[in-house]
Amino acid sequence: MRLLHTSDWHLGRSFHRVGLLDAQAAFLDHLVATVREHDVDAVLVAGDVYDRAIPPLAAVELFDSTLHRLAEAGVPTVMISGNHDSARRLGVGARLIERAGVHLRTDPGGIGTPVLLPDPPHGDVAVYGLPYLEPALVRERLGAARSRHQAVLAAAMDRVRADLAARPAGTRSVVLAHAFVTGGETSDSERDITVGGVASVPAAVFDGVDYVALGHLHGAQALTHRVRYSGSPLAYSFSEWRHRKTMWLVDLAPGGEVTAERVDCPVPRRLARLRGRLEDLLADPALDRHEDAWVEAVLTDPVRPAEPMARLTRRFPHTLALTFEPERSDDPDGHLSYARRLHGRTDQQIAEDFVAHVRGAGPDAHERAALRGALDDVRAGLAAREGEVGR
Questions:
Q1: At what angle do helices 135-142 and 149-165 cross, to 10 degrees?
Q2: Does the first or last residue of the chain, that is N or C, have fewer Cβ atoms within 10 Å of its Cβ?
Q3: Are 164 and 115 a contacting pair, CB within 8 Å?
């Protein structure tokens, strides 16, 4: 049986204020084309279909049209809710939609009831959907010993293994789960799911099944031969600039052996992270290849340059993020407390020091006069209010 494993679509998400709906639509076109081209038997979507609990209407329409296309292709789809999704909203109409071959698994109560995919003459493949399990909300329902991710996932997998043990010998098994599994490589765009200081669970919690299709982490990776993250189809932070965005095309042999290959996703625009002084970034011919990329720039000028974003975007029109990390010698007084460093200094001096700290150079004569005037106005206002109170 051939499975296409994907996750973390995050429909409706933007990238540094740039809308991604067109790019997400292009990815879903690619997914449907891949299903047809590679004779896929079932599609697995391991959570975070939407980027937030109440997604924008355009994202809902895109999701709806994709489900229709998969149903028309006659390819079963098994989908779970992730930590970004509203499980209740995503699961609306699940039993009705199931008639079209789209199986939404959003209710923890259905963990032990698989989707059975027939694969004659080799027998059924049992696909179990484990939606994102918030420990505090599902602990009692699952009979978990503690309100921790490992405890609730272990309890969920106990239900899976109990059901699987009652099925005919040779029944192959697949689990979809949305979780942070130990050993996975994170990025900046995943929402923290830490509970009680522990977010990750060991891969061994999934022992006993043939393939585990994971969602949540945005980089495609294989934790073991049978436990894999598909990653997100698009980059959602600059920390993903090195990612190769793919889906897993998984072949599950009659004996449960797994082979998998990566299918590349369309790239709307490359990412680039640039670092250095502004003039160097503007003049370096080696950076020509980044002029059409989405750019994150870190400027290291000792003194903050004038109009840095405007100057950067003249060369790199798609610059989306700009930060400053000025090159400075160590502060000889850095070991002193903030209060000791301020002791004996006037308000004017403190304000000028703050400008120097933020910008890398102190204020000029005009700026010092502006600061002095602002401080005088504040003092006058305070004196006036005190006078009103004293009357």
A1: 40
A2: C
A3: no
CA distances (Å), origin 273, targets 155, 234, 312, 353: 43, 17, 13, 31
Q: Helix 347-359 crosses helix 365-390 at what angle (to 10 degrees)?
A: 140
- Tell whether the model's pLDDT for residue 188 goes beyond 90: no
Residue at 371: amino acid letter: L
Non-local CB neighbours of 212 within 8 Å, separated by 6+ positions: 174, 175, 176, 177, 203, 206, 226, 227, 228
What is the DSSP code string of 225-284? SSEEE---SS--SGGGTT---EEEEEEE-TTS-EEEEEEEPP-SS-EEEEEE-HHHHHH-
The per-residue pLDDT of the chain, averaged, comes to 91
Could you read off the pLDDT of 322-363 as tens digits, one per residue?
A: 999 998 755 555 445 555 666 668 888 888 888 887 777 888
Give the pLDDT score at 158.
96
Place of tokens 């920390």: 239
pLDDT > 50? residue 197: no
Q: Which residues contact 81 (CB under 8 A, 6 or more apart)?
A: 47, 49, 87, 90, 91, 104, 105, 106, 131, 132, 178
Of residues 333 and 149, more confidently modeled: 149
Q: In this structure, are residues 79 and 45 in contact, taking their beta carbons and an 8 Å threshold?
A: yes
Report helix angle 21-37 to 57-72, nearest 10: 10
The SS3 assignment for 199 reads: coil
Reported as a pLDDT band with limits 50, 70 and 90, residue 390 is very low
Contact between residue 349 and residue 376 where contact means Cβ atoms under 8 Å apart: no
**Domain ranges across the chain:** 2-264, 270-327, 330-391
Tell me the CATH class for 2-264.
Answer: alpha beta
Q: Parallel, antiparallel, or unpaired for β 294-299 and 125-130?
A: unpaired
